[in-house]
Amino acid sequence: MKRLMLAILHSDTYLRDSRIGIVPRPADDCYAAAILKPLSGEQMAWSIAVATGYTDQLAKKFAKDVQPAPGLGTVNAALRVRWEKDLEFDPIVERFRSTSETFQANVSQALFATFNPFSQKLLEPKSSAFVQRLVAEIDNRNLARIAYLAVLSRSPSEDEVSDVAAHFAASKDRSRVAADLVWALLTTAEFRFNH
Questions:
Q1: What pLDDT is stored for residue 143 in this prediction?
Q2: Domain-wise residue ranges, the chain
C-alpha cells in the first residue's frame, strides 16, 4: 500500500498546480490542473487549530494523556479526542460544512472567522502562543516567513516578506499587527482551499 501511495503522490497528475495560464480553463475531467476543493468542516477546524498553535496548547494542557505514539505521527488519538470533544470544534465544523459539490463562500463564514469569540481568542496575544511568538520575533522579515510557513505551509514571496516587514516597521502596536497578520492569512482563499 505504501508503494502505491508513493507512486500516486509523486505522479505528474497529482502534483499539478491549481493555477493554469490557459484561458478558458480546461474542464476538470481533463486533469490539466489540480482541482481546487474547499477544506471540509473537520479539516478547517483542524487547520485553524494547528495554524494558530491551539493544538500545542491542548497538548500542554493534557500533557500526560497526549504523548505522541511512536511511529504514528505527532497527533495521537488522545489529542484528537480532546480537540474534537472541545466545545469550540463543532461550531467551526458546522459553519464550514459544505452542503453541495460546488464551493459557495458565504457571509456567515467570513463573519464567523472575524467575530466568533473563539476565533478572537486564538488571535489575542495574551492567550495565543503563536501570536506571542510573532510579537517576540525581532527580525520582521523572519517574522513574515514564520507566519506564512505556519499558516499557509509555504514560504512567502519576496514581495510578501517586504510588505509584512514594512507594515511591522511602521506600526507601534506589534501585538495588534501580529494578530491582524494571522487573521489575514487564515481568511485567505489559499488557506480555505485544499490544493
A1: 94
A2: 1-35, 36-194
pTM: 0.73
User: HEC states along the chain?
Assistant: CHHHHHHHHCCCCCCCCCCCCCCCCCCHHHCCCCCCEECCHHHHHHHHHHHCCHHHHHHHHCCCCCCCCCCCCCCCHHHHHHHHCCCCHHHHHHHCCCCCCCCCCCHHHHHHHHHCHHHHHHHCCCCCHHHHHHHHCCCHHHHHHHHHHHHHCCCCCHHHHHHHHHHHHHCCCHHHHHHHHHHHHHCCHHHHEEC
45: closest CA among 106, 116, 102? 116
Q: What is the pLDDT of residues 89-105, one digit of tens each?
A: 888 778 777 665 555 55
Nearest-angstrom CA–CA distance, 111 and 106: 9
C-alpha grid cell, residue 45: 477546524
Which parts of the chain have pLDDT scores under 50? Answer: 195
